[in-house]
Amino acid sequence: MKRIGVLTSGGDAPGMNAAIRAVVRTGINKGWEVIGIQHGYSGLVNNDVTLMGARDVSGIIQQGGTILGSSRCPEFETEQGRRKALRTLEEQAIEALVVIGGNGSQTGAHALYQMGFPVVGVASTIDNDLCGSEITIGVDTALDVALQAIDQLKVTASSHHRAFIVEVMGRDCGYLALVTGITGGAEYIVIPEFETDAEDVVNAIRTAYERGKAHALIVVAEGAKYNARGLEHYLSEHHEALGFDLRITTLGYVQRGGSPGAFDRLLATRLGAAATGYIAEGKFGVLAGLNKGQITPTPLSEVVTGKKPLDLDLLRLSETLNL
Ligand code: F6P
Question: CA 192 to CA 312: how far, in whole Å?
Answer without folding.
Answer: 11
